[in-house]
Write a structure and sequence with these properties.
The relative contact order is 0.21. By secondary structure, the protein is mainly beta. Strand 1 (about 15-20) and strand 2 (about 25-40) form a beta hairpin. The strands form 2 sheets. A 5-stranded antiparallel beta sheet has the order 4-3-2-1-5, with no helix packed on it. It has a two-stranded antiparallel sheet with strand order 6-7. The chain has one domain: SH3 type barrels (Roll), CATH 2.30.30.790. About 5% of the residues lie in helices and about 40% in strands. Residues about 110-115 have low confidence and may be disordered.
Length: about 120
Protein backbone atom coordinates (compact mmCIF):
# COMPACT_ATOMS: atom_id res chain seq x y z
CA UNK A 1 0.00 0.00 0.00
CA UNK A 2 1.26 3.43 -0.88
CA UNK A 3 1.94 6.15 1.64
CA UNK A 4 0.66 8.92 -0.67
CA UNK A 5 -2.87 7.50 -0.72
CA UNK A 6 -3.44 8.50 2.91
CA UNK A 7 -3.35 12.18 1.89
CA UNK A 8 -6.45 12.03 -0.34
CA UNK A 9 -9.69 13.31 1.20
CA UNK A 10 -13.08 14.62 0.11
CA UNK A 11 -12.84 18.03 -1.56
CA UNK A 12 -9.45 17.44 -3.16
CA UNK A 13 -9.05 17.88 -6.90
CA UNK A 14 -7.04 14.90 -8.10
CA UNK A 15 -5.53 13.55 -11.30
CA UNK A 16 -5.91 9.78 -11.53
CA UNK A 17 -3.68 8.02 -14.07
CA UNK A 18 -5.25 4.73 -15.15
CA UNK A 19 -3.66 2.03 -17.34
CA UNK A 20 -5.59 0.42 -20.19
CA UNK A 21 -4.86 -1.63 -23.29
CA UNK A 22 -5.73 -0.24 -26.71
CA UNK A 23 -6.82 -2.38 -29.65
CA UNK A 24 -3.18 -3.21 -30.52
CA UNK A 25 -2.62 -4.57 -26.97
CA UNK A 26 -0.32 -1.69 -26.10
CA UNK A 27 -0.38 -0.35 -22.55
CA UNK A 28 -1.48 3.27 -22.42
CA UNK A 29 -2.28 5.68 -19.62
CA UNK A 30 -5.44 7.77 -19.40
CA UNK A 31 -5.85 10.68 -17.00
CA UNK A 32 -9.11 11.55 -15.23
CA UNK A 33 -9.14 14.84 -13.32
CA UNK A 34 -11.93 15.78 -10.97
CA UNK A 35 -13.05 16.45 -7.41
CA UNK A 36 -13.15 13.70 -4.81
CA UNK A 37 -16.73 13.38 -3.54
CA UNK A 38 -16.05 10.65 -1.02
CA UNK A 39 -13.54 8.17 0.24
CA UNK A 40 -14.72 4.80 1.45
CA UNK A 41 -13.17 2.07 3.60
CA UNK A 42 -10.24 4.12 4.94
CA UNK A 43 -6.81 2.62 4.23
CA UNK A 44 -7.79 -1.03 3.94
CA UNK A 45 -7.37 -3.13 0.81
CA UNK A 46 -10.87 -2.32 -0.48
CA UNK A 47 -10.49 1.47 -0.17
CA UNK A 48 -12.00 3.52 -2.99
CA UNK A 49 -12.60 7.14 -3.98
CA UNK A 50 -15.39 8.63 -6.08
CA UNK A 51 -14.17 11.34 -8.47
CA UNK A 52 -16.54 13.71 -10.30
CA UNK A 53 -15.98 16.11 -13.18
CA UNK A 54 -18.19 18.00 -15.62
CA UNK A 55 -17.81 17.13 -19.33
CA UNK A 56 -19.80 19.21 -21.84
CA UNK A 57 -22.30 20.17 -19.14
CA UNK A 58 -22.82 16.57 -18.00
CA UNK A 59 -21.52 15.25 -14.68
CA UNK A 60 -19.30 12.17 -14.93
CA UNK A 61 -18.36 10.12 -11.87
CA UNK A 62 -15.87 7.29 -11.62
CA UNK A 63 -15.10 5.06 -8.68
CA UNK A 64 -11.43 4.15 -8.37
CA UNK A 65 -10.18 1.36 -6.07
CA UNK A 66 -7.08 2.90 -4.51
CA UNK A 67 -4.95 -0.25 -4.33
CA UNK A 68 -5.81 -1.55 -7.80
CA UNK A 69 -2.88 -2.43 -10.10
CA UNK A 70 -4.68 -0.54 -12.89
CA UNK A 71 -4.11 2.78 -11.10
CA UNK A 72 -0.65 4.04 -12.01
CA UNK A 73 -0.59 7.13 -9.79
CA UNK A 74 -2.79 9.72 -8.15
CA UNK A 75 -1.76 13.38 -7.89
CA UNK A 76 -3.49 15.92 -5.68
CA UNK A 77 -3.78 19.14 -7.71
CA UNK A 78 -5.74 21.26 -5.18
CA UNK A 79 -7.22 20.84 -1.73
CA UNK A 80 -10.63 22.17 -0.80
CA UNK A 81 -11.90 23.13 2.63
CA UNK A 82 -14.82 20.92 3.64
CA UNK A 83 -16.80 20.26 6.77
CA UNK A 84 -18.19 16.93 5.58
CA UNK A 85 -16.66 13.61 4.62
CA UNK A 86 -19.16 12.91 1.83
CA UNK A 87 -19.88 15.70 -0.68
CA UNK A 88 -22.89 14.20 -2.45
CA UNK A 89 -24.67 17.58 -2.34
CA UNK A 90 -22.33 18.78 -5.12
CA UNK A 91 -24.24 16.60 -7.59
CA UNK A 92 -27.19 18.98 -7.56
CA UNK A 93 -25.41 22.22 -6.58
CA UNK A 94 -25.02 24.84 -9.30
CA UNK A 95 -22.96 27.98 -9.66
CA UNK A 96 -21.39 29.42 -6.56
CA UNK A 97 -22.72 26.69 -4.25
CA UNK A 98 -20.77 24.07 -6.22
CA UNK A 99 -17.42 25.71 -5.39
CA UNK A 100 -15.23 24.93 -2.41
CA UNK A 101 -12.76 27.23 -0.72
CA UNK A 102 -9.14 26.33 -1.41
CA UNK A 103 -6.79 25.38 1.37
CA UNK A 104 -3.29 26.80 1.15
CA UNK A 105 -0.72 24.31 2.31
CA UNK A 106 2.25 26.66 2.10
CA UNK A 107 2.61 29.68 4.37
CA UNK A 108 1.51 32.88 2.67
CA UNK A 109 4.38 34.66 1.01
CA UNK A 110 4.62 38.30 1.96
CA UNK A 111 4.75 40.63 -1.00
CA UNK A 112 6.76 43.77 -0.53
CA UNK A 113 4.85 46.73 -1.89
CA UNK A 114 6.64 50.03 -1.94
CA UNK A 115 4.60 53.07 -1.09
CA UNK A 116 4.32 55.93 -3.56
CA UNK A 117 6.23 59.15 -2.79
CA UNK A 118 2.98 60.90 -1.78
CA UNK A 119 2.16 58.15 0.69
CA UNK A 120 5.65 58.33 2.20
CA UNK A 121 5.19 62.04 2.87
CA UNK A 122 1.89 61.43 4.62
CA UNK A 123 3.49 58.76 6.83
CA UNK A 124 6.21 61.17 8.02
CA UNK A 125 3.68 63.84 9.07
Amino acid sequence: MEKQIKDIKAGDTVKVYQKYKDKDNKDKVQMFEGMVLCRKHGNEAGAAITVRKIVSGVGVEKIFPLHSPIIEKIEVAKSGKTRRSKLYYLRTAKGRKARLKQVTTKPAQSKSIEATPAAKQEETK
